[in-house]
Amino acid sequence: MTSSLAFCVLVLSATTLALDNGLMRMPPMGWLAWERFRCDIDCKNDSKNCISENLFKDMADRLSEDGWRELGYIYVNIDDCWSSMQRDSQGRLQADPDRFPGGIQNLARYMHDRGLKLGIYGDLGTHTCGGYPGTTLDKIETDAKTFAEWGVDMLKLDGCYSNATEQEKGYPLMSQALNATGRPIGYSCSWPAYQGGLPPSINYTVLGQICNLWRNYGDIQDSWDSVLNIVDWFMTNQDVLQPAAGPGRWNDPDMLIIGNFGLSVDQSRSQMALWAIMAAPLFMSTDLRTLSSEARAILQNKAVISINQDPLGIQGRRLLKEKSGIEVFWRPLLQSASALVFFSRRTDMPYRYTTTLASLNYTAGTYKVYDVFSGQVMKNLSDTTAFTVSINPSGVVMWYISPSENETDTFLQSDFHCTLSSVISPYLIHPR
Ligand code: GLA
C-alpha cells in the first residue's frame, strides 16, 4: 500500500512538475531566421538570402568566428519553410531536398562541431503558418523522434491551423514526446500567442511545467511601432506575465530586430535594454554577414547581456510612467544588484530626468552605478541624492547598480569579463 502510494506520487511528480529537462536556466540566446529572412525560398535568384542550409551555415560561421558564441549566442534556429511539401513514405517530415541537400542531421552536426546548437520549427496543426506540413496530434510522437534522431536541440512549435482544444492537448503531448526521446530539446510554445496570451484561456503555471519559453503575443515586424506595441502589451499585463517567468521558463516577446532597417541606434539600444529587463530570450534575426558596427556593439554589449542572463532569472517590471513621457523599469539581480532603465517616449529632444534612488524604492544606503551604454561609473550615489539622466527621444539610459559595500560585485572590477564568460558560456559545458 505504502509503496504503491509512493510509486503513484513518483509517477505524478514526474509528469506534473516543472519541465524537467534542465534546459534554459537562463534565457536562451542565438539567431532565428524568421523576421529577417521570412519564407524566401527563391534560391535561384536570391541564393544568399533564401531559406537553405547555406544560410544557416553562414550564420553559424559568423556566430562562431565573430565572438557571438562566447557571449552566449549559441542557437541557430530554423523557422518556417524548411521542409518539403510532402512527408516521406514513412510519414516523417523531411527537409526540402533542393535547399537542404545535406539534410537536417548534417546541419545539426555542422552546428555541434562549432559549439553551437540547432533549433527547428514545427506547427501544431494541419499546416505551418506558411502552408508546409504541420504536426497533427497523431504525428506528435513521430516528429519528436525525428527531431531527436537528427540531433536537433530546440523546437519552436507554432500554432497555425489548430483550435484551442487541439492546442490544449497537443502542446503538453509534444513536451512529453520530446522528453521521452531522451535528447535534451528546448521547447518553445506559441500556444499563448494563439489564445490571447492571458488567463483564463492561458494558464501560465501549466505553461511553465511544459515549455521552456513561449510566445505570448503577435509577431514582431521591422519597425519601431512594432517594438512599442509589444512593449506596451507586456507592460500593461506585467502583473500576469512577470511572475510566470523564472529559470527554465521564459516569456518571449519575439526576436531582436537590431541590425535591420526599422530602428535607429537609440531605438536599437531601447530594444536591447527592454528585452534584458524582461528576461527575454535573445534571438537575433538579422544578417550577421553585413551587420553595422553600431548594431554589433549593441548586440554584443556584455553588461546588457549579463543583466539579461542574471542567474536569479527574475523578470523586471515597469515602475513608473511619468506624464513627461519618461518610463522607469527595474529588474532585481544577483547579490542585491539591480538594473534600471530610463526610457523616453518623447519625440522632441533629449530629456533631462531628475529623480533619486529612494523614490525608485531603493533602500537607504550608497550605491555604485555603471551606465551600460556610456561606460560611465558613479561610485557613491546615496539613495537620497538627486541625479539627472539625459535620455534621447525613443532612447534609453540603462544602469547596473549595486550596493557600495558589495565587495564581491564584479561589474566594476577588472575580472568582470572572466566572471561574465563563466556565467554565459553554457556551450562549454555541453560541447557536442
Ligand atoms: C507565425 C509565427 C512567426 C513565424 C511565422 C512563420 O506567424 O508567429 O514567428 O514563425 O509564423 O510562418
Describe this structure in words.
The chain has 432 residues and is of the alpha/beta class. It has 14 helices and 16 strands. The strands form three sheets. The chain has an eight-stranded parallel β-sheet with strand order 7-6-5-4-3-2-1-8. A six-stranded antiparallel β-sheet has the order 9-10-11-16-13-14, covered by helices on one side. A two-stranded antiparallel sheet has the order 12-15. β4, α6 (164-181) and β5 form a beta-alpha-beta unit. α5 (140-150) runs parallel beside α6 (164-181). The longest helix has 18 residues, at 164-181. Alpha-D-galactopyranose (GLA) binds next to loops. Residues 34, 79-80, 128-130, 158, 190, 219 line the site of alpha-D-galactopyranose (GLA).
How many helical stretches? 14
Strand portion: 15-25%
Mean pLDDT: 92
How can the largest sheet be summarized?
Answer: 8 strands, parallel
User: Which range best describes the helical content: under 10%, 10-25%, 25-40%, 40-55%, 55-70% or over 70%?
Assistant: 25-40%
Radius of gyration: 22 Å
Strand order of the largest sheet: 7-6-5-4-3-2-1-8
Helix and strand content put the structural class at alpha/beta
Bound molecules: alpha-D-galactopyranose
Q: SSE order, as H and E?
A: HEHHEHEHEHEHHEHHEHEHHEEEEEEEEH
Q: Uncertain regions: pLDDT < 50 for 5+ in a row?
A: 1-18, 412-432
